[in-house]
Amino acid sequence: MNFETPGKRALDILDTAEDLKSLAEGKRPAEKRKLLTTSIVLSVMAIEAYTNALIWLKIKDDQRLLEKYTCIEGGERELNHHVGIRTKVKEWTRCLTGKSFGDDALIEKFGDLITLRNKIVHYQTKELDDEQLEEVKESIPYQLEEGGKKVKNQGKIERSIRELFFYDCLATEITPEKTQESIETARGVMAELNKCYYDFIPPWLNNF
To answer: For residue 74, what are the contacts with CB-CB under 8 A and spacing of at least 6?
Structure first.
């Protein structure tokens, strides 16, 4: 496991999240929502990457800590991936550094970001049941066009209805403002983590 430069991967992920948010400007609604959704999810991935890196660097030379916080997966020692990011950021940080993570405002923003990410990820995997799908199809005179031709493929129509249903339910939460807030929250969380583990904020976080 190579976590010797903990900021590099997290910075790359967060840069991508910022790029996607910028790309969303001026796009059609469906494409815009997809870009913003991906940006929000990447903001959490950046936190996860940075948190895991800091933890690994803290425990990698201590056998007792390795046995407590890692497991063997595929013949290699890995951080316990069954533990959620909230636990790693708050509880593991306190146990490993003796310091409490963040103030109430940052903790609340962090919790809201994780909740939004979970809504996005888990709602996408939840399909409408047949009865719900029929209700939606009846209420929407829905048709698709490709290259100017109407598409009658029932599977494509049903998938598109599910996608519209998903985005409609989260329409007030997948916005440029929420996306920017997600990116800023990720920066704040990583800066606070670095203060807990190293007593300073690295230049690449200060320069955001």
So the answer is: none
Spatial CA neighbour of 55 closest among 83, 76, 74: 83
Half-sphere CA count of 197, side-chain side, radius 13 A: 25
- Band (pLDDT 50/70/90 cuts) for residue 11 is confident
Q: Which residues of 77-98 are buried (b: 16+ CB within 10 A; e: fewer)?
A: eebeeeeebeebbbebbeebbe
pLDDT at 157: 66
d(CA 171, CA 164): 10
Cβ-defined contacts of 72-81 (< 8 Å, 24+): 76/1, 77/1, 78/1, 79/1, 79/52, 79/55
Q: Provide the β-strand partners of residue 77.
A: 72
According to the model, what pLDDT value does residue 81 have? 80
pLDDT tens per residue, range 133-164 = 666 666 555 455 556 666 555 666 666 666 77
What is the spatial distance between Cα 170 and Cα 199, in angstroms, rounded to a whole number? 38
Number of Cα atoms under 13 Å in the Cβ half of residue 25: 6
Q: Considering only CA atoms, which of 68, 45, 73 is closest in space to residue 58?
A: 68
Helix, coil or strand: residue 79: strand
How high is the pLDDT of residue 14? 93
3-state helix, strand, coil in the chain (%, to 5): 70, 5, 25
pTM: 0.79
* pLDDT grade for 1, boundaries at 50, 70 and 90: very low
